[in-house]
Amino acid sequence: MPELPEVEVTRQSFAERIAGARVTAVRLGKPLRWPLGHEPATLVGQRVGDATRRGKYLWLPLSADVDAAGSGAQSGGLLMHLGMSGSLAFSDAPGPAGAHDHFDLATTRGTLRLTDPRRFGAVVWSEALDGGAAGKLIAGLGLEPFDPAFTGTYLHAALQRRRVAIKQALLGGDIVVGAGNIYACEALFAAGISPRLRSDRLSRPRAERLAAAVRETLARALALGGSTLRDFRDAHGMAGAFQQHAGVYGREGEPCTVCATPIRRIVQGQRSTFFCPHCQR
Ligand SMILES: [Zn+2]
Questions:
Q1: Ligand 1 center–CA 191 separation, angstroms
Q2: Which of 61, 167, 189, 207 could be disulfide-bonded to 156 (CB atoms 3.0-4.6 Å)?
Q3: pLDDT at 230
Q4: Cβ(101)–Cβ(112) below 8 Å
């Protein structure tokens, strides 16, 4: 599943090239998780702005010219999500759409294409990122991990209100976004915190360490994605590359890199958790 670092690296792969382009055609394939919610033809002629990211969503602003207003075109943007298996590629010569290519945004600078075999991804038109359809989808998201407001104090206060295991609180995404399964396991290992610890029992100093570990783990994944961008064709390749450098994730039974205790795997909320029973308390 594409996680925040993969989505951010995807954004960086096309944002500069597509900015300022004009939409020349929109092609829809099979239905995705949510409908576009807008007449595709009205997007033709609109200008693409700067692509941004919020959580695992990408936002592509589109603006209609004043002189095109007579045709009923309305400025807004496209909110994109890669779902379980989606990937976005921007190309000068995308070729004919394949069986799993379900959205094309053709522009004067190239075509942005969503390929999504399982179709849990989506492209949704919205009048604004913080309003309309997009506003509803992003309303419950927690802070961005690199937001200066994401501090140990904030994390500690948020965890004080939870009774669930700390890994579940991180995965929820309503305190901080980006700590998906791999990255939550790695951050807890880096901070020396048991994934089973009840959220409200985490001390203030340990919350400081955890906030730093979440930021550092995601920064490391981003750096890895940036350096391997040319080599990976989709987001899964990048997750695989990160896992090769993982301290605990996917390493059940292998020795801890710090203390050599065998790494354990447990299931929390139907997801595998990997941890060192000696280093993480
Ligand atoms: Zn250990």
A1: 12
A2: 207
A3: 44
A4: no
In sequence order, which ranges of the chain are alpha helices (DSSP H)?
4-18, 132-138, 152-160, 166-171, 181-191, 204-227, 235-243
Label residue 70 by pLDDT band (50, 70, 90).
low
pTM: 0.91
Q: How far is the CA of 264 from the centre of ligand 1 (A)?
A: 10
3-state DSSP helix/strand/coil % of the chain, to nearest 5:
35, 25, 45
CA 211 vs. chain centroid, Å, equals 18
Checking if the pLDDT of 256 tops 90, the result is: yes
Catalytic residue ranges = 2-3, 56, 271
pLDDT at 197: 98
64 CA from centroid of ligand 1 (Å): 56
Tokens 């506003």 appear where?
135
Cα of 203 to ligand 1 centre, how many Å?
21
Report the DSSP beta bridge partners of residue 165.
Answer: 198
pLDDT(78) > 70:
yes
1 Cα–ligand 1 center, Å: 27
Contact 263, 274 (CB under 8 A): yes
Rg (CA), the chain: 20
What Å distances lie between residue 51 and 19, 86, 93, 153, CA to CA? 7, 17, 21, 31
Q: What is the pLDDT of residues 216-241, one digit of tens each?
A: 999 998 888 755 544 445 555 566 67
